[in-house]
Automatic annotation (TrEMBL):
GO terms for cellular component: endoplasmic reticulum membrane. GO terms for biological process: brassinosteroid biosynthetic process; cholesterol biosynthetic process. It comes from the Eukaryota. This is 7-dehydrocholesterol reductase. The keyword Chloroplast does not apply. Its EC number is 1.3.1.21. Its main location: endoplasmic reticulum. It comes from Extremus antarcticus.
Amino acid sequence: MKEVNIAANKAVQAATSAVAIESVSWGRAGKAKWQHNAVALLVLFAPFGMYMNWLALEHHDGSLWEAGRAFASQGPVQTVMQYFPKPSVAGFAGYAGWMILQTTLSFFLPGKQAFGQRTPGGHLLEYNANGLLAWAATHALYLAAAVVGVLDPAIIANNWQGLFVAANIFGFVAAVLAQIKGYFWPSYSSDVKMSGSWIFDFWAGVELNPRFGNWDIKLFFNGRPGIVAWTLIDISWAAYQQQHLGHITYSMLIVLLLHAIYVVDFFINEDWYTRTIDITHDHFGFMLAWGDTTFLPAFYTLQAQYLARYPVYLNTWQSALVLATGLTGYAIFRFANHEKDYVRSQDGDVVLWGRQATYIRCSYPTNDGKVHSSILLTSGWWAVSRHSNYLGDLVLSFAMCAACEFRNALPWSYFFYMAVLLAHRTIRNEARCRQKYGQKWEEYCREVPWRIVPGVW
Ligand code: NDP
């Protein structure tokens, strides 16, 4: 893979020519409009949403509806005074230990050399993709400590409130520090974007790729505090179920398995991830700093948290159906993502679904005055729709939620969130690609007319 990446890098370099260009328009929009400010209000609403989930799970039988009713009738002050996740020394100490461990592993473990996508400023960054080793080491340590009896495997579940508070505080502090660094000490000033709106800049970030030396802060935050924690938190809630119920349900096992496949896939393909939107286009602000440290661990584990407290019993057929749906979604997700990355790494010369791949050759400028060549794939999964990878992700998300049955909306909020997130991504990403590739993007849309679900949208 290292050779493939280096070859791809060389191919991109070779396909670059210098022309006079003053600035490019395909990066993040320059000035914030009212819609951007409205979205940035999620700085307040997203933590509130996480609080409501916690309230529902902890005090209202997992019912968001009941939690909302109680909140409305008691009023916010009374509710918060009566029910608030309790900060604890164990929570702060545990969270600090967690961050120190993940930072250390990220710094010192060896990993694959990966190259991102060229930034609007013209930078092609190198990454040390050692996430798989960090994930394996963390889980091995946790399970070994549980087996020899020095750690209760349900420790995360039992200290959830304290950890939740600590993660929130850390996420807010990290977002503020990211903002200060972006203003005063950016790693790549040609990739800094100021929108003229402090709330939007705080939400979306100003730096594209903040780094300390070669250590990439965004890759670390996206992968480690959030995604490594995802499966660890699941395991802890499964242990909690075992301790309270005396057994682990099929539904819990299915959720654990589907989450684990998604997480391990992410780390096996971490170098691919450096060429996806989170890394190549999203700046580092509250959305990613708080999102990765608090939202992801609290929200993406909702099904496990729910099932641990309110078990669901699926029969063998139901279990098989949910699992098969999840695995089908995963297969679409993985093949689609692989095809797109593979075709670019081989400069188009690949066979997909038994035929020579077809693609549209396009070009785009960067701020350093150069023009680069690229490829828009139009065969394999990328002939089915323009975001077939999102389609696979949605099917997989549906299965993760279906394991919790249909009696409660809360565990389903993950599927609705993914549907909104991926639809919104599609819209904003396509607007960016239209600016980046111009007529070639229009040509691509004519050739592959559906966005996500063929025949629907
Ligand atoms: P993609 O990996 O699909 O990246 C989109 C980019 O790919 C475009 O901006 C364009 O970038 C390039 N591109 C678009 N069409 C083509 C084509 N036909 N051929 C070649 N390149 C093309 O999107 P994401 O980064 O959003 O998602 C990656 C994966 O992560 C998806 O499977 C998604 O479902 C998943 N995901 C999961 C999330 C979660 O929270 N669980 C959140 C977000 C995503 P360029 O500028 O390089 O041309």
